[in-house]
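Exercise 7b. Backbone tokens:
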């Protein structure tokens, strides 16, 4: 496994790999890219596996991107178990890990921003202002650095995926995107690097979130939206959750619903961000109205 911390060394590898691959195969390689913030778990590895299925080389980046953290969030204490991550990446047969320092990505004179203006204002965008500007800026920078043909994102962060899909379309970025289904613990809790923040009792309560989201999704077909969302909130508040949002929006543009009913054949997302104690959890289910 190659491990690069600077852009120049990565580009040297990329240029040489492309030439060698072309000479052998008479076509350019498919480069699959999995951007992460590290503290790797099987959810991240499910993206790697998807990339490996479709591509000739898989590049995984590990970069805790300061510009997507809002003031007061956990940038400083975000877990950074670098040697464990490198070991898991190696065992998962990743071809390249790109692990830059902040100064390599944001030199002192850096002064640009990529900002999606519509979808990024909904859901998490209300509570984490500028978060998605940080995400879209780093993702475009990483695309330009890594030059992937394909990039893989988890639907655990569904809004992030749809915002990135929008900038890829709006800005004619030549990368094929794939959203990968959320990997969950056996009890339903979505795998997340932040689950380590949960206390023992919070960890026991946490699976309730996905349970209630799943029940609510089913109820949406025979009850008014308002009642379903209120019922779900009440149930979860009883289990100790406090809410930023719990909403149903239409895909792929995260549009608000017209009225109380879902339109047959259309895709929707039921999405939430909430707290269990001090830990912020997000989860969602994407579904088609029948
Ligand atoms: P992060 O390191 O949290 O920024 O996540 C890096 C990528 O892994 C993002 O595309 C996430 O959506 C994805 N990811 C995180 N958790 C999961 C999960 N449980 N299942 C699938 N993908 C995930």
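Sequence design result:
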């Amino acid at each position: 496994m190659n491990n690069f911390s600077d852009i120049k060394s990565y580009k040297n590898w990329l240029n040489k790999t492309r030439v060698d691959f072309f000479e052998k195969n008479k076509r350019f390689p498919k480069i699959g890219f999995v951007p992460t913030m590290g503290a790797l778990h099987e959810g991240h590895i499910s993206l790697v596996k998807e990339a490996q299925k479709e591509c000739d080389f898989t590049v995984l980046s590990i970069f805790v991107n300061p510009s997507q953290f809002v003031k007061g969030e956990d940038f400083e204490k975000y877990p950074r178990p670098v040697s464990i991550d490198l070991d898991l990446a190696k065992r998962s047969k990743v071809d390249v890990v790109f692990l830059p320092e902040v100064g390599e990505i944001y030199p002192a004179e850096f002064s640009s921003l990529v900002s999606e203006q519509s979808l990024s204002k909904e859901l998490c965008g209300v509570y984490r202002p500028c978060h998605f500007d940080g995400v879209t800026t780093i993702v475009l920078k990483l695309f330009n650095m890594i030059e992937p043909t394909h990039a893989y994102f988890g639907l655990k962060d569904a809004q992030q995926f749809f915002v990135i899909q929008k900038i890829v379309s709006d800005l004619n970025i030549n990368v094929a995107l794939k959203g990968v289904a959320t990997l969950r613990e056996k009890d339903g809790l979505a795998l997340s690097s932040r689950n380590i923040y949960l206390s023992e009792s919070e960890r026991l309560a946490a699976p309730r979130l996905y349970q209630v989201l799943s029940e609510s999704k089913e109820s949406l077909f025979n009850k008014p939206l308002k009642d379903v969302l209120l019922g779900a909130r009440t149930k979860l508040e009883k289990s100790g959750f406090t809410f930023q949002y719990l909403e149903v929006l239409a895909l792929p543009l995260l549009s608000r619903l017209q009225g109380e009913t879902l339109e047959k054949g259309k895709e929707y997302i039921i999405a939430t961000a909430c707290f269990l104690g001090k830990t912020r959890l997000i989860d969602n289910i994407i579904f088609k109205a029948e």
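Instructor comment: The first strand starts at residue 2 and ends at 4. The pocket of adenosine monophosphate is lined by residues 36-37, 43-44, 46-47, 153-154, 156-157, 180, 182-183, 190-193 (CB under 6 Å).
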